Structures are given as C-alpha cells and as structure tokens.
C-alpha cells in the first residue's frame, strides 16, 4: 500500500466526485475551485492513488487558521486516515510564520469530529448556538431603537472591554469563532460593521452582512439578557429589513447564543436552534 498526503488542485476534482462520503448535495462541490486558492487550501490523503480523505483550512486576519471541510470515503473509514490527515493539516498551518492560532468548529452532536480534534490536542471553548430566524417581529415591543456608533475609538473600546480584555471568543463570521484579539478586530473591519448602544451606554450590539449560501444579518450581542433590553430587537429588526430590501436571496438573522441566552428567550420565540457549535483551538507553542 502506498500512502501520500498532498495539496489538491483542479485536476483532483474527478477524485473528489468519486468519493462515497454519504453527504447529499455537498456544498463543497460547486465551490471546490475556490477552496484550493488562498486564503484556502485543501489537502488530500491518497491510498494507492485513490483519494480517501481530504480536509483543509482557511486563513483569517493573517493570524488564524480554521481547520475544516473534512470528508472521508465511507469505504475507508475506521483506519485512522481522518485523524492522520487533520494532524498533517494542522502542522502545515503552523508552518506559516504568521499563524498564531489553529482551530476548528464542530457541532455538539458530531461526536466523531470531536474525537479527531481532541486527538490533535485542541482544547474546547464554551459552546454557542447558531440561532437563526426569518422574522423577529413577535419579539418587538415598539421601543425606541438604539443609537448608532460611528466613532471608531468607541467601537474599539467596547470590543476591548467585552472581548479582548476577557479573552472571550468572538463570532467573526457565521460558523467561524475565534479568540478575540487586535489582529482579528482591525480598524478597517470595524468601520464596515454597524454598532449600536443603548441610552444608558451599558450595552451594545453589532450587525453585519454575511453570505453563506443564504444571506444573513449576523448579529453579535455579548450578553444573555436578550429579553430585558428595551429596543434591542427593534434595532436588529431595522437592519434586517434593510438587508432584505437589498437582495432577493433567502435572508435570515443569525445570532451566536450561549445556553443561558437561549434560556432567556421567551416561549414561542422565532429562532431555530440546531445542535450547538463547539470551538476547538490551539495556540502556537513558544
């Protein structure tokens, strides 16, 4: 048996198609060509020239590498190939000098993926639900929406106080969480995101556009008191309606909610709550 691991290229697409992964309508197939060019990379594990598993990573903010897109051929599972490949991919990511952290997200019900990540020595972070909704009007009370924050320094102050200073994980995009840092939350990004704060200046919320097949208003609210803040839902809804008017795509609100935040939602709330996501990660060793 001959076994090699190498980066995938356009000529490997036919091998990807021939794999029996058990995944119907895999989103990877139509965007394969995008996943093999920077900031993405895919690696394949071949046995006797047959592709049996592939995975890769995407680089964010030049300093973070998010592992993912692991696929294995059902005919070759149970032989440790997935763990071997992911270990290789993680080491390759750390070969890039600027990468200071490598991680991966998986859902709580994906036990096999968690076992692979734990074998790699990645530590787990608190779980978060990727809550989505198409209509939050039932949560509105007619309260005044919050005040926009246009000052960049004020945005920085909020993020430093709530995320960076406390080493909290930050929902950078839908599905993609990272340990908060100045490298991740750069000024040019903050200028593109909409920030709002309440009248007492004790709470803030971020809204931003995020496309993941469907269109999302990615909403970041770092507290668990969702139902106790007057004007919060009105603020989110205002930006959501604006985003819907700009596109004909399926449009949703996405919020990353802790278990306590989920418990604070009222009965009959409009959010879908699939299995929560668990972030795993590892910092570059000194």
Main attributes?
alpha+beta; Aminopeptidase; 7-stranded mixed beta sheet; 15 strands; single chain; globular
Structural account:
The protein is an alpha+beta fold and 286 residues long. It folds into two domains: 97 residues, 3-Layer(aba) Sandwich (Aminopeptidase), CATH 3.40.630; 155 residues. Helices cover 23% and strands 33% of the residues. It is built from seven helices and 15 strands. A seven-stranded mixed beta sheet has the order 1-2-3-4-5-15-6, with helices on one face. Strands 7-14-13-12-11-8 form a six-stranded mixed beta sheet. Helix 6 links the parallel strand 13 and strand 14. The longest helix has 14 residues. The mean pLDDT is 95.
Break the fold down into its secondary structure elements and pairings.
Blueprint: E1 3-7, H1 13-18, E2 40-47, E3 50-60, E4 64-72, H2 81-94, E5 101-107, H3 111-119, E6 123-124, E7 129-133, E8 147-149, H4 152-164, E9 169-173, E10 176-179, H5 187-190, E11 194-197, E12 204-212, E13 214-220, H6 232-245, E14 251-257, H7 259-264, E15 277-283
Parallel strand pairs: 4-5, 13-14
Antiparallel strand pairs: 1-2, 2-3, 3-4, 5-15, 6-15, 7-14, 8-11, 9-10, 11-12, 12-13
């Amino acid at each position: 048996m001959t076994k090699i691991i190498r980066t995938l290229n356009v000529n490997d697409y036919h091998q990807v198609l021939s794999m029996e992964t058990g995944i119907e309508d895999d989103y990877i197939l139509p965007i394969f060509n995008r996943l093999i060019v920077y900031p993405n990379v895919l690696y394949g594990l071949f046995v006797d020239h047959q592709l049996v598993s592939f995975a890769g990573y995407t680089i964010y903010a030049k300093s973070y590498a998010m592992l993912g897109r692991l696929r294995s051929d059902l005919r070759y599972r149970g032989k440790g190939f997935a763990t071997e490949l992911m270990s290789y991919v993680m080491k390759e990511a750390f070969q890039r000098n600027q990468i200071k952290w490598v991680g991966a997200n998986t859902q709580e019900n994906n036990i096999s993926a968690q076992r692979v990540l734990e074998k790699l020595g990645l530590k787990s972070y608190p779980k978060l639900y990727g809550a989505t909704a198409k209509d939050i009007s039932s949560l509105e009370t007619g309260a005044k929406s919050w005040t926009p924050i246009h000052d960049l320094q004020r945005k920085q102050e909020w993020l430093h106080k709530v995320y960076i200073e406390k080493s909290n994980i930050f929902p950078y995009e839908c599905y993609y969480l990272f340990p908060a840092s100045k490298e991740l939350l750069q000024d040019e990004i903050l200028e593109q995101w909409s920030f709002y704060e309440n009248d007492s200046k004790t709470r803030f919320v971020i809204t931003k556009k995020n496309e993941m097949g469907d269109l999302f208003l990615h909403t970041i609210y770092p507290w668990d008191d969702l139902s106790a803040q007057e004007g919060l839902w009105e603020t989110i809804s205002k930006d959501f309606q604006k985003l819907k008017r700009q596109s004909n795509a399926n449009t949703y609100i996405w919020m990353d909610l802790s278990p306590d935040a989920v418990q604070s939602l009222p009965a009959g709330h409009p959010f879908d709550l699939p299995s929560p996501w668990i972030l795993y990660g590892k910092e570059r060793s000194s």
